[in-house]
Design goal:
By secondary structure, the chain is mainly β. The chain is built from no helices and eleven strands. The radius of gyration is 13 Å and the shape is globular.
Length: 126
C-alpha cells in the first residue's frame, strides 16, 4: 500500500523559509514522478512543482519560480520542497502526490496523480 507523509509545514514570517518533506513507502519510490500541490481556503488546488522519477526534469509554477526548489533523494524515498522568500499568498495546505505509471514523466494535472499525502499547513504572516 502506497503511503505519502508530508512534514515540515508551519508558521513563518514573510521572507522566511521552510523545507517540506514527503516520505514515501509501499513501493519503489525511484520509479515514479511526483509533485507538490497546494490549496488555499476558498481556492482551487494548484500545482506548485513537479519532478521526474529520476530527478532530471522539474517544473515550477510561475508564482514560485526562483523561490522554491523541488528535489528528491531516491535512496531515502523522500521528496523535498525548499521554499524561500515566502509570501503571504503562499499560505495553503501543501500536498505531495505520486504518479502510478513507472518511468512516466511529471504532469501538472492533479488527476494524473492517484496517490496523495494528508497535507501540511504552511502559513506565512505579513
Amino acid at each position: 500500500q502506497v503511503q505519502l507523509v508530508e512534514s515540515g509545514g508551519g508558521l513563518v514570517q514573510a521572507g522566511g523559509s521552510l523545507r517540506l518533506s514527503c516520505a514515501a513507502s509501499g513501493r519503489t519510490f525511484s520509479s515514479y514522478s511526483m509533485g507538490w500541490f497546494r490549496q488555499a481556503p476558498g481556492k482551487e488546488r494548484e500545482v506548485v512543482a513537479a519532478i521526474s522519477w529520476s530527478g532530471a526534469s522539474t517544473y515550477y509554477a510561475d508564482s514560485v519560480k526562483g523561490r522554491f526548489t523541488i528535489s528528491r533523494d531516491n535512496a531515502k524515498n523522500t521528496m523535498y520542497l525548499q521554499m524561500n522568500s515566502l509570501k503571504p499568498e503562499d499560505t495553503a495546505v501543501y500536498y505531495c502526490a505520486s504518479r502510478d505509471r513507472p518511468a512516466a514523466g511529471w504532469t501538472t494535472q492533479g488527476s494524473q496523480y492517484p496517490y496523495w499525502g494528508q497535507g501540511t499547513q504552511v502559513t506565512v504572516s505579513s
